[in-house]
Design a protein that fits this description.
Number of helices: 3
Strand content: under 5%
Radius of gyration: 12 Å
Order of helices and strands: HHH
Distance between the termini: 36 Å
Structural class: mainly alpha
Number of strands: 0
């Protein structure tokens, strides 16, 4: 499993690379890993997805203030 720091770095990279389409990219990765039966990979991408939600929630909240 990736470290917490690595998961945050991955989430940030996915957001910078895919922008508004980041959730779709994550879903595609999880889908491919599910087909391959890679449970550890699925858990990693789910953890990345959680951090993407947190990053975008923080970013959206900052815009409102």
């Amino acid at each position: 499993m990736l470290s917490d720091w690595e998961l945050w770095a991955c989430a940030n990279h996915v957001l910078r690379t895919h922008g508004d389409k980041a959730p779709l990219h994550v879903a595609e990765q999880i889908g491919a890993l599910a087909l391959a039966g890679d449970q550890a990979g699925i858990r990693a991408w789910q953890a990345i997805a959680e951090r993407i939600v947190q990053l975008t929630s923080n970013r959206d909240g900052a815009r409102l203030q």
